[in-house]
Amino acid sequence: MNASPWYRVEWDRGDHLALRLALGVGAALVAGFAVLIPLLEVLGVTSGDGAGRTVPLRATATVADAGGAQGIALSGTSQGEVTFAQPDLTQRALLALPEVFSGALLLVVAYLLYRIVRTLAVGDPFVPDNARRARGIAVAVLSLAVLRPLLDMVTTGQLVLGTAVEDQVSVEATFSSGPVLLGLLIAALAEVFRRGTRLRADTEGLV
After folding, report:
1. Which residue windows are transmembrane per the record (predicted)?
2. Residue 121 forms part of a structural domain
């Protein structure tokens, strides 16, 4: 009886279907809540009244509900909530952009994971395409970690520019080390896939 190659992975049909279902449900939720609903709000299909965003405030910010006469209100202490009574198209787009961007990247991650899962179904994850897919996931996660805070900063600055609350809001980008480390870990995993693929090719060449 021939031994199975070292790179073969035991993966039964039930595990495969369960993981594909989980990825499908997750992708559907992201598509609905992080992409579709914000886009509908931008287009005015759903109610945009009272739309707002949580923002950091300057140390000197002590006023509450500033700027209400302009249809924009600010309340809070170190963290505040900027709200727009009746946001126009530009304001709705600026409010939705970071969330839609994040949702789109998460959908890319879900799709690439789905493609990797399909190779697990045949017990052979060490294929060249999986190394590229894992690198794509790493790039998406790192983009989310770096570009999302920058988008928050830029869009917040545009939202409060020229308003009564502009001097109260601290327009800054806050980065978290967790997503960056996750992206680097996935990049390392992509390298493992690449080396595994090369090792498999070398091993098969000796047969």
Report:
1. 21-40, 93-114, 134-151, 171-190
2. yes
Q: How many CB atoms lie within 10 A of CB 203?
A: 12
Using a 10 angstrom Cβ sphere, with 0-12 exposed, 13-18 middle and 19 or more buried, the burial of residue 45 is: exposed
Interaxial angle between packed helices 89-120 and 128-160, expressed in degrees from 0 to 180 and rounded to the nearest 10? 170
Residue 65 has pLDDT above 60, yes or no: no
Range of the domain at 23: 13-48+88-206
Inside any domain, residue 127: yes
Q: Which helix H or strand E contains 204, and what residues bound it?
A: helix 177-206
Query: Would you say residue 8 lies in a domain?
Result: no
Contact 200, 7 (CB under 8 A): yes
**Does the residue 56 lie in any domain?**
no
Query: Confidence class of residue 85 from pLDDT cuts 50, 70 and 90?
Result: confident
Least confident span in 18-22, 84-88, 126-130, 199-203: 199-203
Helix, strand, or coil (residue 61): coil
Alpha carbons 29 and 25: distance in angstroms, whole number? 6
pLDDT top residue among 81 and 27:
27
